Amino acid sequence: MTKTKVAVVTGAAQGIGSAIADILRTAGHTVHGVDREQVDLSQSSEVNKYFAELGEVDILVNCAGGVVGQTHHPLEEITDADWHAILNANIQTTFNCTRAVITQMKAKKWGRIVNISSGAGRSVSLTGIQAYSTAKAAQIAFTRQMAFEVGQFGITVNCIAPGFVLSNPSTIKQWESYGAEGQAKLISGIATRRLGKASDIANGVLFFTQESSEWVTGQCLSIDGGHSLF
């Protein structure tokens, strides 16, 4: 049986992050959910202060991210601010939070880190947002590099690449924008013929964070109903 651990889930205010926090609580862990309304996770000073006050962390789930309200525009129209806003929300937050916990995880020779990337990081973004697919691919590469670096300390680092999950206002708006024909086309490209649920992703996180998953690291698991098969 998995022993009670202390977990931090970023981006926990809604959707996938909220479902991850719930499933870890159900597993008996003490869970701290943190979102941008509480801490600007793209700022290292705020992140370091938050984790210093929190104390020891056993499990870190980097779920903060998203498209920060942006929609597709041709590359020549993308400003520096647009580009950096999405990179900050996705890969910078992952870097800051991982760096904040890694020393104490090394000291106790145990830790579980799970990064929530996207199918956009393995292929292309359905939104067409260049910075989003770039940031999500960077999360996958960061996962592999960190797994190689810290595996010797009993720390595993894994990643999940969700497919289309209807879980928050942004994804609902995206789904509605496709219209009936676009929705049918998207569903036909999913082997299970349904959209994802936040709980589908949370189940994957639960697996990666278990004691029994100690020999699984550096992996990127596509949880997408088989969409990546096509």
UniProtKB/TrEMBL annotation:
<comment type="similarity">
    <text>Belongs to the short-chain dehydrogenases/reductases (SDR) family.</text>
</comment>
<dbReference type="InterPro" id="IPR002347">
    <property type="entry name" value="SDR_fam"/>
</dbReference>
<dbReference type="InterPro" id="IPR036291">
    <property type="entry name" value="NAD(P)-bd_dom_sf"/>
</dbReference>
<dbReference type="InterPro" id="IPR050259">
    <property type="entry name" value="SDR"/>
</dbReference>
<dbReference type="Pfam" id="PF13561">
    <property type="entry name" value="adh_short_C2"/>
</dbReference>
<protein>
    <submittedName>
        <fullName>Unannotated protein</fullName>
    </submittedName>
</protein>
